[in-house]
Fold this protein.
Amino acid sequence: MTFTRRCMSLLLGTALLATALVPAADAQTVVGVTATEIKVGNTNPYSGPASAYGTIGKVIGAYFKKVNEEGGINGRKINYITYDDGYSPPKTVEMVRKLVEQDQVAVLFQTLGTPPNSAIHKYMNQQKVPHLFVATGATKWNDPKNFPWTMGYQPNYQTEGRIYAGDVLKNHPNAKVGILYQNDDYGKDYLKGFEDGLGEAGKKLIVMKQSYEVTDPTIDSQIVNLKNSGATVFFNITIPKFAVQAIKKAHDIGWKPVHYLNNVSSSLGTVLKPAGFEASKGLITALYMKEVTDPQWRNDKGFQEWVAFMKKYYPEGALDQQENAYGYNVAILMTHVLKQAGNDLSRENIMRQAANLKNVELPMLLPGIKVNTSPTDFAPIEQEQLARFNGEKWDLYGEIFDAFRRQ
Amino acid sequence: MGSRAPRVLLVLAILAVACVLPFTVSNFRLFQFTQVYIYAIAILGLNMLTGYNGQFSLGHGAFYAMGAYVSAIMMDKWNIHYAWTIPVAGVLCLIVGFLFGLPALRLEGLYLALATFSLALAVPQILKYFEHWTGGSQGLVLSKPGAPFGIKLNPDQWLYFVTLAVMALLFWLSANLLRGRVGRAIVAIRDNHIAAEAMGVNTSLYKSLVFGVSAAYTGVAGALSASAIAYVAPDSFNIFLSITLLIGAVIGGLASISGAVFGAFFIQFVPNWAQDISKAAPWAIFGIFLIVFMYVMPFGIAGAIRLLWIRTRRSRVALTPEARDTAHSQAPRTT
């Protein structure tokens, strides 16, 4: 009977396929590391709504290429495996499981976005695979007690909000404060940090809070409302597109508050220039990196190193995109951790070294800002410095604020 | 199509292979197969609506999201066992789908596609609005269910079997539904709704019902995905999901039950292959795959297989003495 024969061959074929898919048994004791290579996994949104950030994954790859060309780390080359997750959490789960279970990476590094990382947070800690320097500003990555395998990287939004609050209390204790924020967790994180920082005084100081949706076409009416509230201090929690509008509109209607602008929109190239340098004069922000479009860094050694690197290893990357400096910094930090781990590249030791960083300097961080971690502190960068725009560049002022030391 | 025996045997054989799979492949592969089954359920739902009933939907991602969130909120806020959340998600989506189907009756073809598209656009934002329930854009983190009663299966294997069982049940139900009187009425509406009405088919009721059932299937798939991924967030259910489901339905084969499974395999694995082939332009490669499939298999994968099946049968029929004088009689005898 031909039918049963066909069924049999189908069965057999599927069984053969199934056995072919089983990964070969792994003899080595240290996962993801051989005498000649270290496997580092990553996911980035190379497609989809957040694909503008995908350049971070690429610049990291370019830096690891440089490291490999210069001989690698203790003779081992970095095998950087990066997949597109399109900023979709289910895809992140699938790709990260592929990296961990099939590609068998030693560490997962710089997975991007709060929702994608939330989706794999538990999994990484169950699998006990280092989940290092995630690319998100949320606060929850610094939780070594419950999630000993996950570590953040950049200063979080709440910390930054607190810095502005400190400056308001110190320099404008009798101000009337108006706030404009994006109505999502990014905006609310900033708001929470700011209100926490003001404490009891906040109830008296804040006279108006306005919000907008990221899909709104304009925020003109919010700015007019804030002006009419009589606010003398304006905390502007907006992404670049709306920051440009807010700066312009406030200038056009003759509203001249003390204007705090969140770091998210501190770029000269994408925000201040389109808004007009004249209108932008006097803006205050908090920085932790050298702004790539700020002329004051033109002759800075770290900046020039970065430009030389970009030209040689990532020529298609834009020199006015802050993300390219961000990825460069964090790739250097990852290399530093692997170097520090020496010849013991077990996952435990890599995690131990990541939690034992002392005053590490990165070329594109502001002078004086250093990376520090400890077994109880999984927030690598916690310092920022306030800066005021003088019409040409950001003038740093005051001392470097350290969130960890003050808490 | 003659006797049903071979078909039943084939289905049983495939089920047997599916049951052996968890003990032969890695957990990662198993997770991928679980995803395939979840997609297959959603695509079957969409296929009933689009393939069988001729109503277009670009918004089934919205029902998928709704099922996922109903399940996630029940688990997260009220600690309800995940098994209970799946039927609840299905029933809720059935009701919402039916109600959405009522006004949608007035819209035909492309207009309906646009109306459903707006649903898919709106849902991720609506989810952010009810932050207290949905966790806003941070989403809800869930725990992955393990096997009950001390059954010795790991969570991946257990979830695989749960999904397989739900899929088998839903496929069996839809096969029964579509084969009988109801199925003929549904197809008649697609082919010529005036004629169907003249035959006494209540077209508006049927259309709304199909919309409801279709939404229910997709909602169940969403609920299963909430457990499989153990996380829900608005970013998981963007507009691309709806389009992906439609791609799966068309590539798999419209108006075909088995086509849903083929379509699910396609949308699960082809994007990954495309990424393996070219890191620089994976979606261009995916597009080429799509075009090739559409050209080579204009009736979808299921349609191509059916055609192949019919051809082999015909050549065999041609070899019988009764048909000796046909043109095919010179064909060499194969198995």
Notes: Residues 203-229 of chain B form the longest helix (27 residues).
